[in-house]
TrEMBL record, chain A:
<comment type="similarity">
    <text>Belongs to the binding-protein-dependent transport system permease family.</text>
</comment>
<keyword id="KW-0813">Transport</keyword>
<dbReference type="Pfam" id="PF00528">
    <property type="entry name" value="BPD_transp_1"/>
</dbReference>
<keyword id="KW-1133">Transmembrane helix</keyword>
<dbReference type="GO" id="GO:0055085">
    <property type="term" value="P:transmembrane transport"/>
</dbReference>
<keyword id="KW-0812">Transmembrane</keyword>
<keyword id="KW-0472">Membrane</keyword>
<dbReference type="GO" id="GO:0005886">
    <property type="term" value="C:plasma membrane"/>
</dbReference>
<feature type="domain" description="ABC transmembrane type-1">
    <location>
        <begin position="74"/>
        <end position="294"/>
    </location>
</feature>
TrEMBL record, chain C:
<feature type="compositionally biased region" description="Low complexity">
    <location>
        <begin position="30"/>
        <end position="45"/>
    </location>
</feature>
<dbReference type="InterPro" id="IPR006059">
    <property type="entry name" value="SBP"/>
</dbReference>
<keyword id="KW-0732">Signal</keyword>
<protein>
    <submittedName>
        <fullName>Extracellular solute-binding protein</fullName>
    </submittedName>
</protein>
<feature type="signal peptide">
    <location>
        <begin position="1"/>
        <end position="23"/>
    </location>
</feature>
<dbReference type="Pfam" id="PF13416">
    <property type="entry name" value="SBP_bac_8"/>
</dbReference>
<feature type="region of interest" description="Disordered">
    <location>
        <begin position="26"/>
        <end position="48"/>
    </location>
</feature>
<dbReference type="InterPro" id="IPR050490">
    <property type="entry name" value="Bact_solute-bd_prot1"/>
</dbReference>
């Protein structure tokens, strides 16, 4: 009961108590439903793969092993790839969020004469897809193929992010900007001193979106840099491990040999399902850890928001 | 609310007074354009580099759309591929399954859109009502974890949850007594859209609620305090403060998503479809994959992309102008 | 005006910035990427030059990237030829990868484009190899011998080298790794090892066992199931063909006399099999989830030991096989049976000698000194090197008996079965996707160790022997008939142009089969005829004749020796 009181906190009447109780019960159910897939994946990642094939693993491994992780980490290149992943995530997020915020600021200014044009120019691109080959040819002309910057430049600005940031800046009281202008502040000053700091919660949100997108991306490595081991990323290395373990059980000569070899049944082996589970954990844990750091900016935004009126 | 907003009102008045003077000068033409550039050169400086970026990376490659009217072969390039006129569009629209594919696409897209919005907003509001900050953070962090699982993993879990013999859903329904016989959920085409919708909510509701939580933090706390003093109930506070506070974000997101009306998802359908439910599972993206990309027919894929763009624009502009007419926030 | 200029300047400047930023980066990376090749390629004039050189070898299937000289064999071959390869395997979609390669016009030095080969040939990405082979590939020419015509294009040029021509003698696999009706072998033991050859006998014995054992290990018995998921649907739709006594020629069966190809999707054979399944279902012996479960669900069911019988290709259910072996219940393991519709039909489950002439490895126009690559290939297909790739080193990995036949001792077997060893030694790398041979060496030993009867026998344990003895056979494949002579086999390896009518037909017909077959099987037996007729009318609405004509022509051209024709 003590825990429950702690969760409910101070309350003011029966209505509140009912509301909080229902809410907390809902949230507990939610935790169970949402935690299950992750725990299931974790359990499979630590279970002997040939046993996992039988199914029926829930939240605890039946035959414990770390072999699936050993298999995922066999490649020496994985550390280097991890570094590239971190680099592209950090640089991509910093530049991307900054650029998006800047554009968002300009189109949030009611007096900007190109406001509508710029907004539309950006928004329309959300629904137009040139296709893989034209994009590839362009990036080749720009010298981006075989370069680190192909991870950063083509996806620099997310239109969705611009619009989100814009609507937050528009929500800030115009009086703040007015008084700054009266004090002689230019647009850059207003952007850096007012718009950016006051929209920290949304900046944090957008940073999370961009960071996760960057971290999870593997397709651009595949298309542009697959022949250059130095530019490989963690996600791409893991995709390799996964498609390799898929192939070992798929069609072709390799599979026939796998079949013959399996006759003795002594070798510890991996299945696509187990590799996928281990991979999911390896890739998602670092990025899940990022969020709690961003959460504090939500609270900060809250206090600033409180002051702004 | 009812507070006096004097500074704002004053500036609005000032603007009104100033305007008539300017109207004498021409409102269009290069001269006007450059004059405005000069006046707002800082804003121009801020946006120009990104407009150039936009032109290069987003508009320039659209020249590749020409391949929709060709029998494009990568070996020949855009200049030497044979012209095909509207062949690929005809292939797309005249296929006997096109109507069925469109029906599935639209149905799943609309279900995902509505379910997605309702659940994410509800979750954000409920999370916001949690008083214990630590508990709130834990719930939130857990709620978006499924977002990091790939569809392959989620589809596997969905499929085993819906299994006939030991699937949790059938076991629950049997125990409650709602059914006497286990249901083969994935074997009935009519259930497919619902299954996709529910799986999509499971995977992304937590992630989608983040944006609304961020929006809620921007709401003025004084409003809540004032409401509490006035004796407003929790539900009233949600209804009169929280929801109006995130209204404009919701509407903007909705307009953007309505533009994605033909994007009903791909992986979930691809992984959960089977011979028994294929008539309800196949959407435009799967169709294009089968007859376009996996047959190296990039022209067909491009034609389908152009078709999607046209439909997107129609829905986008309609949604935006409806929002405008209703006096709501709009996208542009 | 000044302001106008400054605005233009701004535009130009930012454009410049974008270009400089990416341009400079690009230069440095391409340089570092190219150095290994440029510095090495200076003096490639002389034929027997051993100057070290590294080529980029792209393979359009999955695998683990490596440099060939990181493996023991690769290092040896580098010593012999001076050539090393940076091998890159495919990760994503093959068509997308090849599409940008061709559109951009820059290629890896060596490419194995798998089923995307048409696109590269169309693009002229490969150089003709005729002269190079003449000059630097005597061993390749000898090993591939008569097969060379099969991959010589209509313009008289050879653009790629397929894998695995059968030389000397054809060696069938002692174990069944192809299609078969599998049965939990304990059932056979229970009923005194009867001969089960026809579909009726097969279903009868399964039904009888299921009636007597409604539960296995506390779980409901699944008498019969099969794989139908996604791209594995052929595992279900191919069955009538096998029951009728034909090997896997694709979606057509080829008449042995007229050599006409005909689709069997709506044949009497298909109807007969579906009717049998329909009855099975009506009696409650068919897995209800047969058309719903995905690959993982299917494997989980097989692994549980409660499935009595199923049809599958051996290489598709390896994971379940290992799981069952781990259970230490030898009677739960599965045995392959050569089931046909009736006794008069000779089964043809075992593949005839096959040569997939529309897959192979080619050298791209971007490769410098391509003769070095041919020299490497030529060295690789020498018997002594093929023996190293397939068997390892004599004494270490295999032993030679007094008749000169190879076998593996228990210790040697343990070594070569270890995946890590195979990777490090280079067996995994070179056993496919490189020029290689099949069949037997000139001394009569099988090229592939697993096809050597002595090796297969060595692998059998006590329990296996019990079954083998009961049926009076030495290897499990002896239950099956020997493959008949089908010089065109496999018909499915015909070069089908991408996006052509036959390609679209294949996609559409699979769609119709997928939609109708389950309905027919699960229908009330009274509605069976209606469902079947409904399917046939839909299926025949496609241009079936054109598709059949396409393959008939291919088969007949092949019989005339024309494997490439227009």
């Amino acid at each position: 009961m003590g825990v429950f009181k702690k969760l409910v906190g101070r309350r003011r009447g029966v209505d509140d108590l009912i509301f909080d109780t229902v809410n907390i019960i809902l949230m507990l159910i939610l935790i169970v439903i949402m935690l299950y897939p992750m725990l299931n994946t974790l359990a499979i990642s630590f279970n002997v793969s040939t046993d996992s094939v039988r199914g029926g693993i829930h939240i605890w491994p039946r035959e414990f092993t770390t072999f699936n992780y050993e298999h995922v980490f066999t490649e020496a290149t994985i550390l280097r790839a991890g570094l590239t992943s971190v680099l592209r995530t950090v640089i991509g997020t910093a530049l991307g969020v900054f650029a998006s915020a800047m554009v968002a600021y300009t189109i949030s200014r009611p007096h900007f004469f190109m406001k509508k044009f710029v907004t539309l120019a950006f928004v329309l691109t959300m629904y137009m897809n040139a296709g893989l080959i034209p994009s590839y040819l362009l990036h080749r002309e720009l010298g981006l193929v075989g370069s680190f910057w192909v991870y950063i430049l083509p996806t620099l600005i997310g239109v969705f992010n611009i619009i989100i940031i814009r609507s937050f800046i528009e929500g800030l009281p115009e009086t703040l900007f007015e008084s700054a202008r009266i004090d002689g502040a230019g647009e850059f000053t207003q952007f850096f001193k007012i718009a950016l700091p006051l929209s920290l919660p949304v900046i944090a949100t957008v940073s999370l979106f961009v960071a996760v997108a960057q971290w999870n991306q593997w397709f651009d490595v595949f298309i542009y840099n697959s022949s250059i081991p130095e530019l490989s990323t963690l996600q791409y290395e893991l995709m390799k491990v996964l498609s390799n373990s898929n192939a070992a059980y798929g069609s072709g000569a390799g599979a026939a040999d796998q079949f013959a070899r399996s006759a003795s049944g002594q070798i510890e082996t991996v299945t696509p399902q187990s590799v996928r589970a281990a991979m999911t954990i390896v890739v998602s844990v670092p990025i899940i850890c990022v969020y709690p750091f961003l959460q504090k900016y939500f609270v900060k935004g809250l206090t600033i928001g409180g002051v702004k009126g | 609310m009812g507070e006096p907003a004097s500074p704002l009102a004053v500036t609005e008045d000032l603007k009104k007074v100033k305007k008539p003077k300017k109207q004498r000068k021409p409102r269009n033409g290069f001269k006007y354009f450059f004059r405005r550039c000069r006046e707002q050169k800082e804003l121009v400086w801020m946006s120009a580099p990104f407009l150039i970026w936009l032109f290069i990376f987003r508009y320039l490659p659209l020249g590749g759309w020409v391949m929709a009217f060709q029998d494009y072969r990568p070996a020949r390039g855009f200049f030497d591929s044979e012209w095909a006129g509207l062949k690929h569009f005809r292939f797309l629209f005249s296929d006997q399954r096109f109507m069925e594919v469109m029906r599935n696409t639209l149905a799943m897209s609309i279900i995902n859109l509505v379910l997605g919005f309702v659940t994410a907003i509800t979750l954000a509001v409920l999370l916001n009502e949690l008083r214990n900050v630590k508990f709130k953070r834990i719930v939130q962090t857990i709620s978006y974890m499924p977002h990091f699982l790939s569809w392959v993993v989620v589809a596997g879990l969905v499929s085993s949850a819906l299994a006939m013999e030991d699937g949790i859903v059938n076991i629950l329904l049997m125990n409650i007594g709602l059914i006497d016989e286990p249901i083969m959920f994935l074997g009935v085409g009519e259930y497919f859209w619902g299954i996709i919708g529910a799986s999509d909510v499971w995977k992304s509701v937590g992630w989608n609620s983040i944006i609304y939580l961020a929006a809620i933090t921007m709401i003025d706390q004084e409003q809540y305090e004032a409401a509490e003093i006035d004796g407003a109930s929790r539900l009233q506070r949600i209804r009169y403060i929280t929801l109006p506070g995130i209204r404009s974000v919701v509407i903007i997101l909705m307009i953007m998503n309505i533009g994605y009306i033909l994007e009903s998802g791909f992986e979930a359908q691809y992984l959960l479809r089977n011979p028994m439910n294929m008539d309800y599972a196949e959407n435009l993206d799967i169709f294009v994959l089968r007859y376009g990309i996996s047959m190296a027919n990039f022209s067909l894929a491009t034609a389908a992309g152009m078709f999607k763009t046209v439909v997107s624009f129609i829905f986008l502009f309609s949604a935006n102008s409806i929002a405008k007419k209703l006096g709501e926030a709009r996208l542009f | 005006m000044v302001k106008k200029k400054s605005f233009l300047l701004l535009v130009l400047l930012s454009l410049l910035m974008v270009f400089v930023a990416c341009g400079s980066e690009d230069d440095t990376t391409t340089d570092s990427n190219d150095t290994s090749e440029n510095s090495d390629n200076n003096s490639g004039e002389e034929a027997n030059d051993l100057e070290p050189v590294t080529y980029h070898y792209f393979i359009g299937v999955a695998g683990s990237d490596l440099h060939t000289n990181e493996t023991e064999l690769g290092a040896l071959f580098e010593e012999q030829t001076g050539v090393n390869f940076q091998v890159e395997y495919l990760v994503g979609d093959l068509m997308e990868k090849l599409g940008v390669m061709v559109a951009g016009g820059s290629y890896p030095d060596v490419i194995v484009p798998d089923h995307g080969i048409e696109m590269l040939l169309d693009a002229g990405a490969f150089i003709p190899l005729n002269d190079l082979l003449e000059e630097h590939g005597p061993n390749i020419l000898e090993m591939y011998g008569d097969y060379i015509d099969r991959f010589t294009m209509t313009d008289g040029n050879i653009y790629y080298i397929p894998f695995g021509p059968t030389i000397n003698e054809f060696m069938p696999n002692p174990n069944i790794d192809q299609g078969a009706f599998w049965i939990q072998r304990g059932i056979l033991k229970e009923y005194g090892f009867p001969e089960v050859n026809t579909l009726d006998e097969y279903f009868d014995i399964i039904k009888r066992y299921a009636d007597e054992n409604p539960q296995i290990d506390g779980m409901n018995t699944i008498p019969f199931t099969g794989l139908t998921y996604d791209t594995s649907f052929f595992t279900f739709s191919n069955v009538p063909n096998h029951l009728a006594g034909y090997p896997n020629d694709g979606s057509v069966m080829v008449d042995m006399e007229t050599h006409e190809a005909s689709v069997y999707g709506d044949s009497e054979y298909a109807k007969r099999y579906l009717q049998a399944l329909n009855e099975l279902n009506a009696e409650g012996y068919l897995d209800r989830e047969m058309f719903v479960m995905n690959n993982d669900d299917y494997l989980a069911k097989l692994s549980s030991g409660r499935v009595l019988g199923f049809f599958d290709y051996g290489w598709q259910w390896g994971q379940a096989r290992i799981a069952i072996e781990d259970m230490d219940d030898p009677d739960k393991e599965y045995m392959a049976l050569p089931i046909t519709f009736d006794e008069s039909i000779e089964d043809q489950y075992i593949d005839p000698p096959a040569f997939t002439q529309n897959r192979g490895v080619g050298i791209s126009v971007d490769a410098e000194n391509p003769e070095r690559i041919i020299q490497f290939f030529d060295n690789l297909v020498k018997e002594e090197n093929q023996r190293l790739v397939m068997w390892g080193r004599e004494g270490e990995h295999y032993t030679v008996d007094e008749d000169g036949m190879f076998y593996q001792t228990e210790e040697q077997m343990a070594i070569v079965e270890d995946q890590d060893f195979r990777d490090d030694f280079g067996m995994t790398t070179f056993e496919w996707d490189w020029p290689r041979i099949n069949g037997t060496f000139s001394d009569g030993n099988a090229v592939e160790a697993r096809r050597q009867p002595a090796v297969a026998l060595q692998n059998y344990d006590e329990d296996d022997l019990e079954y083998l003895e009961a049926y009076g056979i030495e290897t499990f494949s002896e239950l099956f008939a020997q493959p008949q002579d089908r010089p065109w086999y496999p018909a499915w390896s015909t070069n089908v142009p991408q996006g052509s009518e036959p390609a679209i037909f294949a996609e559409r017909s699979e769609e119709i089969l997928k939609r109708h077959y389950p309905r027919i099987v699960l229908a009330d037996p009274a509605d069976f005829e209606d469902e079947w007729n409904d399917f046939v009318s839909n299926y025949r609405a496609l241009d079936v004749e054109a598709y059949e004509a396409f393959f008939t022509r291919s088969v007949q051209e092949r019989l005339k020796g024309n494997w490439q024709f227009e």
